[in-house]
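Consider a protein example.
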Amino acid sequence: MTGLTNKVAFITGGSRGIGAAIANRFAAEGTNVVFTYARSITQAKEQEEKLKAFGVKSLAIQVDSADALALQNAISSTIKEFGSIDILVNNAGICPSGDFGAITLEDFDQIMDINVKAVFAASHAVVKSMAEGGRIISIGSNLGDIAVTGDTILYSMSKSALQGFTKGLARALGPKNITVNLVQPGPIDTDMNPADAPLADFLRSRMALPEYGTGDDIAGLVVFLASSDGKYITGSTLTIDGGMNA
């Protein structure tokens, strides 16, 4: 990919799963990477050192994405230390499921805080200093388009919200030549959704390519959008789900 060397990428939830794969791919392209993590310090430090092995700068910051102010403060401190953030990847998210009748207002607040409010807060903090040619890429879900079961109502709602946000923000930032896009993964083999999960065979039965994707599959698309090759793509929702929504 072109245009990524010496840039600075800020990735929420970059210590594991899809976020870690994205961070690794950026580092391999010569991009300096700052990422947030919520829990395991050991895992985060291991990821930080892995990224540095590519010869780039890397920093892990412990932030719970449910705390919008803490997330914005992390972005501010990154800008002070690195000088800028060229690429924002809103990756952190949660995927609770359960019977609709058992959902509480607290459940609603938690998923909206992490899956929606954090995306708004991070993007709002970044654009204040993002230079021309910047990139904002959010990780949604193919379940933003469909509801496979009745157990993922809140999750589907939260991911659908990112579609409207992406389109509106792309319009707002187009005059600054900042692109805004949404990547919607389908079933990806991570610890949050392993390929041997109880619903895995059912999900595979819905797919045109009946196999789970990998974090690298998502990372490749994200890095393409962030590169100069993706400069004319904005306001778009790109679904990468093995044909599950076909």
Observations:
- The chain has one domain: 8-240.
- The CA atoms of residues 209 and 242 lie 5 Å apart.
